[in-house]
């Protein structure tokens, strides 16, 4: 009976032993795979850091004249390279395919090596993208090193390379920091199969070829698990992981004897327990299996988190080897995180500097155009005021019943022209990032006629023509408007005795689009009959701050804005012709792949539409005269109006509860501690469902009032009524949906 009980238990124990062996083998292999990949990432991040430094140096302005660099440019770049490599175990080499120009490890001006005719270059020469060489012996110091080569691309070619050396000692430091378990071998292999760093015995093996078995596997795939014999002749299990970016690989091998130690210990404990007590043996086997597998699983999870870019802490698992690898993974994750943070900080700083410079240049360009417009705008505003003043004078003195339609029409036209004029000025006052839109030039260009006439003055005739087949373009309308204003201001200065300013839009020919990115383009040809541009300055007119005007008469930013706008939009600006009879400038802009968005529905209230009656409306306006006029208009619309002069007073009226308001119309800029936008958000939070419309004359305030209905001053009565009814309808539909 004892045998009958023991035999099934023994068979079960043997089965458990077999399953445990297979599971532990798979787990150990997976742990080795994940550890190798994680440490390969450490090497790749270090190489990426060096590529970033070399790439930043390749974009140095001191190399813009490449390949013909002046001694001053070389000296400045040498100093820049010295600063960039502080704290880096390596040096910078600036070279042509045949000659070193700068070696930051040598004094500036010291003779540097040239390539001997018939011999290949020491390092491969990068032409279109960065590349990492294999190990080679330096011609100056005879030291083994690789190089991260980054092309210096200017005018479509790469006459120079910036190289940042990669020393085996730096790679060896990365391996030594990992503190791998005793008996484990690790190596870094370059793209040619040479050993860059190794543990153990780096002095013996660095610079020698790796095994043919490993080299053939690296050529065949990016990673792999295989049986091998180390260079010392020890049978091992190995896994390699090759960088798909740089072609270097990281290899870890574990002696087969070490692989089986833990397994044999577990199996021996299980077998001994089975001989003493079958049930205890089975329990012991399960316990031992869990004791080993859980640390490995945790180690696997930790390695995957490192591969995903997380920072991990070293864990105490109870398994010495696993604890060692866990500590190595923690160190690797921290090194990766530090490298990533440093890179992000550098990129953020560079991006912020570029964005600030672009904003300052754009604002300077706008201010120059606005200053040029000031005189014309004042003249036009005075004309509009004269029309209104004269018409009001006539209306006051006409007997009742007279036909006053001509005077009322003149006042309406003056107000409409004034509204468009202030709209243009408000757009100039904005300081925004570029927002490209689909523009239909057939409607856009005619809308600029008034502002162009203002910029040019009454002595210059404005002509515009858009050919019927002209395609739509993709550009920022505000920047395009500013470019045309700048051209108009330049033309005005070139025609002091008057002349003609001509704008023609059409599809560009293939010849005109030559030199631009493949695609279709539209050309806006802007011509004048002025004095032209002198040939000796023609190539400089688009340079920032270049001007032929006297001190205080121009900043030299107008034409640079035009060229910058066209370039940013994906096109260019060119001077087609210039003679004593005038100048023609072409603005080439890319064709849009989309159609213009559908026109907004009219804000005007339709004829015969129902006018609300006895709706309680709260008007918040601090200007007494404007408030009285608006109250009269709203009463004419059929509203029962209550007026407040500040947001605080309006809140008191609402909280008092004497009236239940159906709608609120509020100015934005008001005295007191709360403006109209803050007031609207207060109502949204405390009086939900109460519709509110904001009205302002400041373009910047419109952007701050996102989420609310906003009208721009001056607002036509029809537009005001339409907005009031639209907001009430939206509020009513929202309540119905509830």
Index terms:
EC 2.7.13.3; 23 strands; Heat Shock Protein 90; Rossmann fold; 6-stranded antiparallel sheet; alpha+beta; flat; histidine kinase; 738 residues; 5-stranded antiparallel sheet; phosphoprotein
A few lines on this structure:
By secondary structure, the chain is of the alpha+beta class. Among the domains are: 434-590, Histidine kinase-like ATPase, C-terminal domain (Heat Shock Protein 90); 615-737, Rossmann fold (3-Layer(aba) Sandwich).
CATH topology of one domain: Heat Shock Protein 90
Rg over CA atoms, rounded to whole Å, is 39 Å
The DSSP helix count reads 18
**Shape estimate:** flat
Annotation, overall tally of beta strands: 23
GO molecular function: phosphorelay sensor kinase activity
EC number: 2.7.13.3
Protein name: histidine kinase
GO cellular component, one term: membrane
Walkthrough of the structure:
Residues 290-341 form the HAMP domain. By secondary structure, the chain is an alpha+beta fold. Among the domains are: 434-590, Histidine kinase-like ATPase, C-terminal domain (Heat Shock Protein 90), CATH 3.30.565; 615-737, 3-Layer(aba) Sandwich (Rossmann fold), CATH 3.40.50.2300. The strands form five sheets. Strands 1, 2, 3, 4, 5 and 6 form a six-stranded antiparallel beta sheet that branches. Strands 8-7-11-10-9 form a five-stranded antiparallel beta sheet. Strands 13-15-16-18-17 form a five-stranded mixed beta sheet, covered by helices on one side. Strand 10 and strand 11 (249-255) form a beta hairpin. Helix 1 runs parallel beside helix 7 (278-307). The longest helix is centred in the middle third of the chain and has 78 residues, at 320-397. The protein starts with a helix and ends with a helix. The model is unreliable at 550-557 and 597-609 (pLDDT under 50).
